[in-house]
Each structure stands twice: as structure tokens, then as C-alpha cells.
């Protein structure tokens, strides 16, 4: 490799002319492109699955699918075990003859969890690990000008060498199946910017952005780019970086000197740019820049990539807590599993965005991706919406052998490489969750983060108070074994709320009935929506108490345990500690957390006004005064609660006592500084008379890509349109247009709402959804896929 200085005015003029002609003649298709369509799939469930080869399977038995894809449609409640076995995916790819002189590769974002990739019948790579990407270079093995068969064999059976490693029947989540994240195709010049997982050198491949010396006046942007020459001759290039603001205007740029690479060589080049008056990223103002990176030669633009990034500083200290851009930020966080009912992890990019939208709308500014790294699309949405992220390696209460530990080390490296340019990621959980790890391993994983992220943004965190930058403990349960105690000597950034059962370290998991903890159903924080308003109110109170009892001060924040209910292997029921259920329908606790935010006036009555609801009425609001009426009679005008479970809350609830139960309407009016800002009413319902249909798009349209899915809810209402909160009738759904329904059908309504998944087809257009139930007026809505 040789690096040369710029070669004079004549060369610059030649380069300029070449750039004009080269850009005009360059393929306009972006790099990479999604490779999700027209795959074929078959699942092998027989006892001889290890001996079945795809060549023995007739073509007519393969099912055409789009990615992301799950290998098995699971029931709503996964009892016993999730599906585990071997499945195959294949795709026919015709490589143009001109590609013989290009680099061609595939990037797999997530394949669960032991993969073998074949090209035209020959094995070309293997990969273990289901949560992070791997790259396959096809260039040398493709048959150009012909059709090529790409085959992927996936084995998701239990494997103690592959994190999380723990047997499914002891695991507090499921890992599901299939090519459940995107696959992307790279067709580039032989001289190209590498994909992130393409290189196994330190820092991997691709582009790294960093920022330092940040102020409101200026910021220094560091850009590191790996370039590889797969040609059989030396190649020369200039590296150009251009930073664009949200309007597409150039704010800074740099260009390297002329660099020459020998055949088979790679180089990582670093440049710096000064951005004047930068717009800084923060949860409140998530400003994003686009970095355009180009390889230039005498022939024009050889390769080009776009990387979205943000400029911000993160500082965490024991005295001040979390600081973003020098300003204190109180982290209010939750945990989220990448799980939908029926399809498991196989969420579209839009579905991931919708989850982020809901989390932010609930009032949280931070999310931890429970037990494993999230999808790239989820992090993209966090960048856009302004949701900070704790990014963890895969694992939970299990420490395996040497191969397992090596895999955890590799997961740490790949997690850092994949997610390093996301401004939303503020901490890297480089430890196995709730696992007592030997000090050397915890130290090694911590140091690996520092090694992989040399340009900053490298705070590590752990539930163990050792060898990490930030200590994030759980509230310890009295029955926790002694070896779990003693990890609480330092002040944490925040503490995690676990309601009444918290953490356990004895490899047990408790069912909804109460399990080994013997927590009664009436006091548990694990409450399904169908348990009724008093049970949901108890869950909300438990979380309120934990939220209030933050002993470390307001700058250190607090974290709710769970955003959405989910399935797990260690119990025969759904984990129902979420503040929304698995269909993303809010419970009362959702409204408690939402009331803690200043944005958007809120008033919500956490009471169904049924004979079983009791006479205590709680209203969640961010107002300073609430008036409560019972059938137009003023019951009271009250300030927020001031009891011991409310004194530390930003917006305590308002608790009223009704003189007695009277069917009818309870109405709350919320005031701030004397002006009404919001209101809410709840009416005792009559018998179910009709259905009301809505679809949840959460700020993203339904995309006609064959995989995007939205929840559709059919609410039981009485003749006046009031929700029937205790309704449980079976509801039948049907659909017209290019879309399909996933889930039980008919489905029995839970707490008055029947839910199903609507999955888009591949042809844009109108879709009609109808819901019917015996004796009730039908409902129909129309949506449009795009």
C-alpha cells in the first residue's frame, strides 16, 4: 500500500471531468439493496432431519416467502416448548456477466441460530449465533451469466455453545426461528468500502463515525473507513466524506490524498471534519446527519455509502448521573423484547419502528433491549424518535464452557461494530445478564468494548458492580442467594423495577399462578388485561411505589421492567408484567408512566365503573388539579396525592373515594394553572351490541412488502358505543385485498377486545377488514398498503 499526495492541478481537472461522466454512467441503485423477496422455505420436523438434504426435496414442496420470516407460526401462548428443528431457505440469483469484475456479497442481519450457507450445492460458510450479522462473499463462487442457487440451512435446536445457551425450559424468553431479519445484497467494484462484518480485523469493516470537542459553536467529526482491493491489479483512489444536514445541505467535508492498494490488501483510513454550529442529537431533539462516503478514481465514483449519525456527548458520573451534551437527563427506561404474537421475532422494519413509537409515547426516554441486541431497524427508529438505548449481548442466567465464552466475546465485538454509529446507543451491556461471571471474563468483555470503540461512545454497564463503567442493579429480593448479594456497593445510574417478584438467581421462573414466591394474584405486578381493573390497578400501584422509592436521587432515574408482555420457555403462560399486553394494548400502568411526562396533557381514569371495581378511583394526569364527577355530581376537587408512595413523583396520581357505587358515568376534568387541559370519562356499559374496529399504525403506513403487519382490534361496545370491559365473545375476522390474517380466528375477546395481526401482501392497494360476532352488529374498516 502506498499513499500519495495530490498530484497537481491537471490531475484535479481530469478527476473533475471524470466525476461528471462517472456519476452519469454509474448504477443508480443504492448499496446495499434488500434481498428479501422470492425466497423459498421448507421446514423439516421428522426424526431424521439431520440426514435430509435439500436436493432430495421436490420443488413443489417449497413455500415461497418474503423476509423477515419465522419458520413456525407459534400459538399465542407458547406452552411446553417453542418449535425447534431444522429448516431451509433457498433463492435463485442470476448474476450478470458484468458482475465477474465486481465484488458480490450477502449480509444476513439475523439467522436463528446455527447457519450453513451453500452456493450451487457447495458449502461456502458457517455461522453460529442468532442475533448479530454475518457476511458471505459470493464473488469467487458465483456462476456469472447463469442462475445460482443460494441455500441456507438453519438449526435452532438447543445448543449450550451458542448464547443464550440455557435450555429453553429454564429460559425467561424464547429465541424463535428462521431468517427473521433482513438479508442485503452488495454488488460493488472490486475496490470497495467493506461491509461491517466483512472483515474480521480489529474494528471490523465499514465506516466508523466519532465526535469530540463538541460545543454549540463547533464539533470535530472523526471518520474511519475500511477499503479493500479484491482486484488482481493495484488500485488507486481518493476517499471523500461529505456530511449533510437534515435538509441535504453540506455542512462539512474532507478528502484524502491519493492512496494505492495492492491486490488483496485492506486499509483503514481516518479523516477529520469540523462542523460549525452543529445541531446536537438528544432525546428531545434527535437531529441526524447523513455521512456520504465515496471512493474516487480517475474513472469516477468507484463506491459510495451513506451512514446516518448524530453529534452528541454522553457523560455519566456518580455525582451528576447522565449528561447529554452537558445537560442533565433523567433516564426513565423500560425493557423490550423483539416479539410479536404468532410470528415471534420476524418483525418488519416498520413494526420495529411502531414499537419505538409506543415506548416514546409512553413517556420513556431509554430502552434496554432485553437479553439480546435489537434489530438494526429498531435502532434506526430510536435514532429518529429520540430514544436512548442500552445494547446488551445475548445471555441470561447462564455461563457456558470455553466455546460459549468465546462466542460471548465475539458477540461483544460484533455488537459494537454493528451499532457504533447509532447516537441512540449510550451504553453497552457487555456482561451476561443476571449471570455471576468470573472477574477475568467481565474485565475482558469490558476491555473489548473499549478496544472496538476507540473514538468514544463506549460506556459499558453490568448488573455486577465490577469491571464496567456503569452499575445497573435490580432491587434484590430477600430470597436471592448470597452469591448474588454484595454487588451493590456503588451508586448506580438507575435501578430496575420488578414489582413484587424482582430477580431470582436460582434458575427458576415463576408462573402467573404465583410460583415459588407465593405472591397472591391480587398483589402481583404480573397482571394480564383480562384480570380486570382492580388487578391492573394493583400492578400500576406496585410500579408507582418502585418508581417513587428511588433512593439514589432524581438524577439517577428509574426503569420499569417491561414494556410489552411476552412468551418465555420457563413457564406455561405469558409473562404479563408489561405495561402493555403482547398485542400492544395499554394496561393502567401505561397511563401512570405516561402521566409522568410533561409533553402532552393527559387525564385517564383507571377504573371501569363496574360493580366489582370498588369505590376508590385513581386518575392519572400531569395536571395540578382534577375534578371528579359521578353522573354529573361533583365528588371532589383535588390536588395530587401526597402519601409516601407519591412524594418523589413528578406527577403523583389523584385518588378519589366515591360515596358508593352507582352505575353511570364517571368524568374527570384536569386543570393546569386554572385552565382545563384534558378530560376523560368512563361509563358503565350495557350488554354488547356491536363491534368497533381500529388498526394500530403508530405513525407508519402498512407497507406492501409481504412481511409488514399491524394489529387490528375489535372492541365490544354497547348500544351507546361504550366499551364493554368484561366482554369475552368470540370474534371472527375476514379480509379482502392483498393481505392475510395471522392468529386465532375466531378469537375470544380479552377484556372486551379481540386482537389479530393483519399482514400485508406484496401488491399495494386497498384492504378491507371485517369483524363479526354472533348477535352483534358487524364492523368494517378500510386501509391502504403502500
User: What is the average of the pLDDT values?
Assistant: 89
Structural class: mainly beta
Report the end-to-end length measured between terminal Cα atoms. 48 Å
Count of helical segments? 7
Binned, the helix content reads 10-25%
**What oligomeric state best describes the polypeptide chains here?**
single chain
Low-pLDDT windows of residues: 1-29, 475-491, 494-521, 551-556
Sum up the overall morphology in one term: globular
Biggest sheet descriptor: 8 strands, parallel
Rg calculated over all Cα atoms: 28 Å
| Binned strand content | 25-35%
Task: Please provide a brief summary of the model.
The protein is mainly beta. It has seven helices and 46 strands.
Could you please describe the fold and organization of this structure?
- Helix content is 12%, strand content 34%.
- The chain is mostly beta strands.
- The strands form 10 sheets. Strands 29-28-27-26-25-24-31-30 form an 8-stranded parallel beta sheet, with helices on one face. Strands 1, 15, 16, 17, 19 and 20 form a 6-stranded antiparallel beta sheet that branches.
- A hairpin with a 2-residue loop joins strand 22 (321-324) and strand 23.
- Helix 2 (349-361) crosses helix 3, helix 4 (402-419) runs parallel beside helix 5 (439-452) and helix 6 (533-548) packs parallel to helix 7.
- It is globular and about 90 Å long.
- Mean pLDDT is 89; it is low at 1-29, 475-491, 494-521 and 551-556.
Amino acid at each position: 500500500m502506498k499513499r500519495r499526495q495530490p498530484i497537481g492541478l491537471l490531475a484535479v481537472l481530469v478527476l473533475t471531468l471524470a466525476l461528471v461522466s462517472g456519476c452519469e454512467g454509474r448504477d443508480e441503485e443504492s448499496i446495499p439493496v434488500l434481498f428479501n423477496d422470492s425466497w423459498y422455505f421448507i421446514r423439516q420436523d421428522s426424526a431424521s432431519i439431520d440426514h435430509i438434504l435439500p436436493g432430495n426435496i421436490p420443488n413443489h414442496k417449497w413455500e415461497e416467502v418474503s423476509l423477515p420470516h419465522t419458520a413456525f407460526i407459534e400459538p399465542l401462548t407458547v406452552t411446553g416448548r417453542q418449535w425447534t428443528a431444522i429448516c431451509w431457505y433457498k433463492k435463485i440469483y442470476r448474476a450478470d456477466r458484468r458482475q465477474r469484475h465486481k465484488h458480490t456479497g450477502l449480509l444476513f442481519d439475523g439467522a436463528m441460530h446455527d447457519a450453513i450457507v451453500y452456493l450451487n450445492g457447495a458449502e461456502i460458510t458457517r455461522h453460529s449465533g442468532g442475533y448479530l450479522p454475518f457476511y458471505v462473499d459470493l464473488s469467487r463462487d458465483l456462476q456469472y451469466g447463469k442462475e445460482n442457487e443460494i441455500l441456507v440451512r438453519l438449526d435452532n435446536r438447543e445448543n449450550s455453545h451458542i448464547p443464550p445457551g440455557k435450555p429453553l425450559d429454564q429460559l425467561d424468553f424464547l429465541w424463535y426461528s428462521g431468517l427473521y431479519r433482513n438479508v442485503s445484497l452488495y454488488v460493488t467494484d472490486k475496490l470497495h468500502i467493506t461491509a461491517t462484518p466483512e472483515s474480521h480485523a480489529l474494528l471490523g469493516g465499514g465506516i466508523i463515525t466519532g465526535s469530540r470537542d463538541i460545543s454549540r459553536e463547533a464539533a470535530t467529526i472523526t471518520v474511519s473507513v475500511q477499503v479493500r482491493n479484491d482486484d488482481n491489479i493495484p488500485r488507486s483512489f481518493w476517499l471523500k466524506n461529505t456530511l449533510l444536514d437534515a435538509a441535504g445541505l453540506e455542512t462539512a467535508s474532507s478528502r484524502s490524498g491519493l492512496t494505492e492498494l495492492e491486490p488483496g490488501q485492506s486499509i483503514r483510513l481516518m479523516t477529520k471534519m469540523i462542523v460549525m454550529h452543529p445541531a446536537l442529537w438528544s432525546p428531545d431533539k434527535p437531529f441526524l446527519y447523513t455521512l456520504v462516503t465515496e471512493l474516487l478514481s480517475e474513472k469516477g465514483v468507484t463506491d459510495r455509502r451513506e451512514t446516518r449519525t448524530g453529534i452528541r456527548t454522553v457523560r455519566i458520573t456518580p455525582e451528576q448521573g447522565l449528561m447529554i451534551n452537558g445537560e442533565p437527563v433523567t433516564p426513565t427506561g423500560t425493557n423490550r423484547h423483539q416479539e410479536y404474537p404468532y410470528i415471534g421475532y420476524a418483525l418488519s422494519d416498520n413494526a420495529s419502528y411502531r414499537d419505538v413509537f409506543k415506548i416514546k409515547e409512553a413517556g420513556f426516554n431509554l430502552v434496554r433491549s432485553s437479553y439480546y441486541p435489537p434489530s438494526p431497524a429498531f435502532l434506526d427508529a430510536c435514532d429518529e424518535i429520540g430514544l436512548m438505548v442500552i445494547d446488551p449481548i445475548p445471555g441470561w442466567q447462564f455461563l457456558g464452557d470455553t466455546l460459549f465464552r468465546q462466542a460471548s466475546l465475539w458477540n461483544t465485538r460484533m455488537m459494537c461494530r454493528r451499532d457504533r454509529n447509532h447516537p441512540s446507543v449510550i451504553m453497552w451491556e457487555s456482561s451476561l445478564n443476571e449471570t455471576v461471571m468470573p472477574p477475568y471474563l467481565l474485565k475482558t468483555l469490558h476491555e473489548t468494548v473499549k478496544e472496538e470503540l476507540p473514538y468514544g461512545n463506549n460506556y459499558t454497564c453490568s448488573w455486577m458492580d465490577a469491571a464496567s463503567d456503569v452499575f445497573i442493579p435490580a432491587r434484590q429480593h430477600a430470597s436471592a442467594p448470597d452469591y448474588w448479594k454484595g454487588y451493590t456497593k456503588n451508586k448506580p445510574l438507575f435501578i430496575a423495577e420488578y414489582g413484587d417478584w424482582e430477580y431470582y438467581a436460582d434458575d427458576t421462573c415463576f408462573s402467573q399462578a404465583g410460583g415459588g414466591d407465593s405472591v397472591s394474584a391480587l398483589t402481583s405486578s404480573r397482571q394480564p388485561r383480562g384480570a380486570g381493573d382492580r388487578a391492573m390497578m394493583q400492578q400500576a400501584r406496585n410500579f408507582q411505589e418502585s418508581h417513587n422509592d428511588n433512593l439514589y436521587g432524581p438524577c439517577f432515574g428509574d426503569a420499569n421492567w417491561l414494556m410489552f408482555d411476552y412468551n418465555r420457555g420457563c413457564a406455561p403462560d405469558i409473562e404479563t408484567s408489561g405495561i402493555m399486553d403482547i398485542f400492544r394494548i395499554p394496561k393502567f400502568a401505561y397511563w401512570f408512566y405516561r402521566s409522568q411526562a410533561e409533553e402532552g396533557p393527559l387525564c385517564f381514569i383507571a377504573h371501569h365503573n363496574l360493580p366489582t371495581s370498588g369505590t376508590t378511583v385513581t386518575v392519572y394526569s400531569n395536571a395540578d388539579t382534577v375534578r371528579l364527577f359521578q353522573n354529573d355530581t361533583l365528588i371532589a376537587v383535588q390536588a395530587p396525592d401526597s402519601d409516601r408512595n407519591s412524594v418523589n413523583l413528578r406527577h403523583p396520581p389523584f385518588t378519589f373515594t366515591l360515596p358508593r357505587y352507582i352505575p353511570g358515568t364517571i368524568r374527570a376534568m384536569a386543570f393546569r394553572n386554572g385552565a382545563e387541559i384534558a378530560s376523560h370519562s368512563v361509563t358503565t356499559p350495557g350488554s354488547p351490541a356491536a363491534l368497533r374496529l381500529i388498526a394500530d399504525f403508530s405513525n407508519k403506513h402498512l407497507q406492501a412488502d409481504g412481511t409488514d403487519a399491524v394489529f387490528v382490534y375489535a372492541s365490544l361496545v354497547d348500544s351507546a358505543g361504550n366499551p364493554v370491559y368484561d366482554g369475552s365473545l368470540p370474534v371472527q375476522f375476514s379480509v379482502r385485498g392483498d393481505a392475510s390474517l395471522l392468529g386465532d380466528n375466531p378469537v375470544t375477546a380479552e377484556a372486551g377486545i379481540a386482537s389479530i395481526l393483519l399482514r400485508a401482501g406484496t401488491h399495494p392497494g386497498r384492504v378491507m377488514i371485517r369483524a363479526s360476532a354472533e348477535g352483534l352488529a358487524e364492523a368494517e374498516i378500510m386501509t391502504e398498503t403502500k
